[in-house]
Write a structure and sequence with these properties.
36% of the residues lie in helices and 19% in strands. By secondary structure, it is an alpha/beta fold. An eight-stranded parallel sheet has the order 1-8-7-6-5-4-3-2. 44% of the residues are buried. One of its GO terms (cellular component) is cytoplasm.
Length: 222
């Protein structure tokens, strides 16, 4: 099932509730929430109070992307704020298996993100425990960057790893995703696409529908 996850980081923060509800009504199923600490990545974004304040105004799946050092410290707080899924970076966890287990024990879906230069082989042992793998197609920390082409090959490799083991792992891509390159990502094996500027710049509802039209065309081929 193909899903669109608009990235809140690209929204107009003066109109967050309105914009979130706009993309939900247009057909998005996920809301991608980038939590940045200014240490693992250069930027600082938002944290639990913003997530909690939005939880009451939408039924979207809250896909919380933890771009922070040692994210295991915050699992319970992020859960309490309203997360449905927590994604942590392989590069940020000293004990990745422990952190993934913390997420699962909290009753949430668990995902692991890989920075562009991190090989997918680092997930070989943990893959069966994951609900989703996030392939970063830009270096994390800033919106509006250009898509890194070799991310496509990484998507293919993760999909192959999952298929070889009979796993129905979601593969998410984040960074430089547009309606124009969505087809190539889907063909490579991705099924959850994060889009920030491509959704929230201009008419957000129309932009969501543009992605959903691409999804429908691909699903019709399947």
């Amino acid at each position: 099932m193909l899903k669109l996850a608009p990235s809140l980081l690209a929204a107009d923060f003066k109109r967050l509730e309105e914009q979130v509800q706009t993309v939900e009504r247009a057909g998005a199923e996920y809301l991608h929430l980038d939590v940045m600490d200014g240490a693992f990545v250069p930027s600082i974004s938002f944290g639990m109070p913003v997530i909690q304040s939005l939880r009451s105004c939408t039924g979207l799946v809250f896909d919380v992307h933890m771009m922070v050092e040692e994210p295991g410290r915050y699992i319970q707080d992020i859960k309490a704020a309203g997360a449905d899924l927590i994604c942590v970076h392989q590069e940020a966890c000293i004990h990745l298996d422990r952190t993934v287990n913390q997420i699962k024990e909290a009753g949430l879906k668990a995902a692991v993100a890989l920075n562009p230069a991190t090989p997918v082989s680092t997930l070989e042992n943990i893959l069966p425990e994951l609900d989703m793998v996030l392939i970063m197609s830009v270096n994390p920390g800033f919106g509006g960057q250009k898509f890194i082409p070799y991310a496509l090959d990484k998507v293919r490799r993760v999909r192959a790893m999952a298929d070889e083991r009979g796993l129905e792992t979601d593969i998410q891509v984040d960074g430089g995703v547009t309606a124009e390159n969505a087809g190539a990502l889907i063909q490579a094996g991705a099924n959850v696409l994060v889009a920030g500027s491509a959704v929230f710049k201009g008419d957000a509802a129309a932009n969501v529908r543009r992605f959903l039209d691409v999804f429908a065309a691909w699903e019709a081929k399947a």
